[in-house]
Design brief:
The complex is a heterodimer of chains A (606) and B (147). Chain A is α+β, with helices and mostly antiparallel strands and 606 residues long. Chain A is 25% helix and 21% strand. In chain A, the strands form 5 sheets. In chain A, strands 8, 13, 14, 15, 16, 19, 20 and 21 form an 8-stranded antiparallel β-sheet that branches. Chain A is globular and about 70 Å long. By secondary structure, chain B is mostly helical.
């Protein structure tokens, strides 16, 4: 096969981290090629509309429902999980992951141009300073080789590129600091009516656990979602919201579609297409349906000599066909998210033993209840506020921290409302106005709380490969081994207790019932208590950064320890996530990785 | 004086309004009654025709539905042949899907989802459609007022 043009940088993955790196590098005049496994070459609004049509026509509106896999780029699906039978997790025929267990890794990601930001919620939380030194502070998990202060300028750059809406005064908690005078690009997304009621109902409440009392309050969530621009941003230069790709007047503000996961119909929510469009305008090339299958190395130096990829399409007769190609560059950046990055390195025969290990997620405990009065769910973004108080503390020596997310969409996640409520009323033979009354009387009071539990880096939680498990192109399918340790389970248990106490203080009738989840993935019994968790969609850790090839895959600059022209960025580089949704940190890391690559290239030039 | 007999279409609309609890204007406003009726005619013409026939026999004046009328209707719905089709009808309007809850369910059309009633009945709008505007989620919810 012919070897192709020499680019400055080849990036694997057209998701947020690949997009940001491409934009940063092309801004500085470097030539960039992005290889994207999935489909999508268009920045036309009409083409995005087909995703929306898929969403409207889906019978189950899961995160990937609008974004069907391309034949050569299968992706994990919620519908792969078929419950537990006789203690054994069941998976659908044709599932992308091969799950070894003992627990199911429940999260999904999207292999399309734009990546998982197509379906994400948009939560943009910085990590806490203490999250970077969990091992030193709490003898738990791993330390990062960098700290919050190192990352601060990159957080600002990420908050600009994504377009984050928040009021900085509210966000300086638990050690989080901002540069003096910093404001976010846009003012906070208005908090929901139910957030404000919950705040009112819990204003004097305390959480009591393990002999400690914690005050807590409801705080707005910073989000990558268009809101009112802050005229003070950038020393008074202000900020112009970025609307929909291909139709920029649309999506200038969140319009309350309340479907963020899985799709924002107007693209008020950030997705990586917005950054990809800028990169392409700068001259970046994107090849979609081009799945990287192997990184090629020079045996002597360990340098990457090229990336082999399979450019595939479906023939007229419906057959999946592909052509194998190799492309080379001066530097290579893997930005295909935690699982695919690790899988690619394993497929390439990389010897670093940490590759694929330390796979993390945020297990999300769900609790749900009936508020004492109408709060009006199914309005606005999926979550506009949370409770940060339990995200840090000395208790992290013994149990995981957790972040409380206050849901705005009723009991849809755990109980499939409102349709399930309609069905319940029909079972009682209700119809007409009586049916409507029965529905509203219950539905208008529904509140759901999610508790994101931090995970430690555990080396047994891992992505591996196995010759028995391949996709239709012959590429490896991820083999996943996963479980929660007691540290996480204690955190999940504490989080459940938090909800019980908070509901009680607020006068919310706790309707949480895990007995019906006994045969659903995520159910567990710990210290005689039934608990249940679901995946947050937060993959991390599989090529974490550290000080040596013994303990990590990349160094602090995200360069591979073994292969000096190879960088890996994104959540896979993170030794911990704390209790932050990781995308903002991954975006900051992508800005930094691009900077490191640019420095490297400039040093080589001179 | 005898009223002229109602067409099947208008019977279908009136019955849909009475069974869903939404007004005739809401039903007609979706623009979907002909589509939905066609789905029934395609999937189970006997059942839908029997249901419409039973409803017609009750001679209910749509503009003037009394509590006794509702009792008559619930009596009709108790019929074991008419109960499933009437629930199917309600679920179709509420979810935009045929056979909601079964493995062979499908969304009839994107308009069917967009015009579906379950989120409206819950006090909001279908997720991803009929968006009420920036910041509206901060205000107290509207509640259901019986017409």
């Amino acid at each position: 096969m012919a070897k192709e043009d020499n680019f400055d940088v080849v990036i694997v993955g057209a998701g947020i981290t690949g997009a940001i790196a491409a934009k940063e590098l092309t801004d500085q005049g470097f030539s960039v090629l992005i290889l994207e496994a999935g489909a999508g070459k268009s920045f036309k609004f009409e083409d995005y509309q087909t995703y929306l049509d898929n969403f409207y026509k889906a019978t189950v509106r899961t995160p990937n429902a609008p974004f069907p896999a391309t034949a050569g780029a299968p992706q994990p699906l919620i519908t792969d999980q078929l419950g537990i039978k006789d203690g054994i997790p069941q998976f659908a025929e044709g599932s992308y992951f091969h799950q070894v267990g003992p627990s199911t890794y429940q999260s999904t990601y999207t292999r399309q141009m734009g990546g998982t930001t197509l379906h994400w919620l948009g939560t943009c939380l910085r990590m806490l300073p203490s999250d970077f030194s969990e091992k030193t502070l709490y003898n738990s998990g791993r330390d990062w080789p960098i700290n919050y202060y190192d990352l601060m300028p990159y957080y600002r750059a990420a908050e600009l590129e994504i377009g984050v809406s928040a009021d900085v005064d509210e966000q300086a908690f638990l050690g989080i600091e901002f540069e003096p005078g910093y404001v976010y690009p846009m003012k906070k997304i208005p908090q929901s009516y139910s957030d404000l009621k919950l705040q009112e109902w819990t204003k004097d409440a305390q959480f009591k656990y393990d002999g400690t009392s914690y005050d807590y309050s409801v705080v707005s969530i910073p989000q990558g979602r268009n809101s009112t621009p802050n005229p003070a941003y950038n020393k008074g230069k202000g900020y112009v919201p970025v609307g929909a790709v291909g139709n920029p007047d649309v999506g200038q503000r969140c319009e309350g579609n309340a479907s963020c996961v899985p799709i924002c119909p107007v693209q008020a929510k950030y997705n990586a297409l917005k950054t990809l469009q800028k990169a392409v305008a700068n001259g970046a090339e994107i090849r979609s349906q081009s799945v990287a299958s192997k990184v090629l190395f020079d045996e002597k130096t360990g340098d990457v000599t090229g990336i082999m990829y399979k450019e595939y399409r479906t023939s007229e007769s419906g057959e999946l066909i592909y052509e194998e190609k190799v492309v080379s560059a001066k530097r290579y950046l893997l930005a295909a998210h935690a699982v695919e990055n690790a899988k690619l390195l394993l497929a390439s025969g990389c010897q670093n033993k940490n590759i694929g290990q330390n796979l993390m997620d945020h297990p999300v405990g769900l609790s749900w209840g009936l508020a004492p009065e109408a709060i009006g769910p199914y309005r606005g973004p999926g979550a506009t506020s949370g409770i940060p108080a339990l995200r840090d503390g000395p208790f992290r020596r013994n149990r995981s921290a957790f972040r409380v997310e206050i849901g705005n969409w009723g009991w849809s996640w755990p109980k499939f409302t409102p349709n399930s409520t309609v069905q319940d009323a029909l079972k009682e033979k209700k119809f007409g106005v009586e049916l409507r009354k029965a529905v509203i009387e219950k539905e208008e009071r529904l509140m759901r709380i999610g508790m994101l539990i931090e995970m430690q880096a555990l080396s047994n939680n891992a992505v591996t490969i196995d010759d028995r498990y391949r996709d239709h192109l012959g590429n490896y399918r991820p083999v996943i081994t996963f479980m929660l340790s007691d540290h996480e389970k204690r955190g999940l248990k504490a989080a459940r207790s938090f909800c019980v106490q908070m509901f009680d203080a607020a006068g919310i009738e706790d309707k949480t019932d895990y007995t019906e989840k006994r045969n659903v993935q995520g159910f567990l019994v710990f210290e005689d208590e039934e608990l249940w968790w679901q995946g947050a969609g937060h993959y991390a850790g599989t090529h974490l950064m550290g000080t040596s090839s013994e303990n990590s895959v990349v160094d602090a600059s995200q360069r591979s320890h073994e292969h000096k022209n190879l960088f890996l960025t994104g959540c896979g580089s993170m030794p911990s996530m704390g209790t932050s949704n990781p995308t903002l940190t991954a975006a900051a890391l992508a800005v930094w990785a691009a900077e490191n690559i640019a420095k490297d290239l400039n040093n080589t030039k001179s | 004086m005898n009223k002229s007999p109602k067409t099947k279409g208008s019977l279908f609309e009136e019955l849909s309004a009475i069974l869903t609890g939404f007004s005739l204007a809401d039903i007609q406003g979706t623009g979907l009654s002909a589509t939905y009726f066609e789905v029934f005619e395609d999937k189970d013409p006997d059942a839908i025709n029997n249901l419409l026939g039973a409803f017609e026999k009750l001679g209910i004046d749509y503009g003037n539905v009394s509590d006794d009328d509702l009792i008559l209707i619930s009596g009709v719905l108790e019929d074991k042949y008419l109960s499933p089709i009437s629930q199917q009808l309600i679920l179709m309007w509420y979810t935009g899907q045929w056979n909601f809850g079964e493995t062979d369910t499908y969304v009839i059309s994107k308009e069917a989802y967009i015009e579906s009633f379950s989120f409206r009945a819950a006090g909001s709008h279908p997720a991803g459609a009929k968006q009420p505007g920036f910041g509206t989620w901060q205000f107290p919810p509207q509640t259901f007022i019986e017409e």
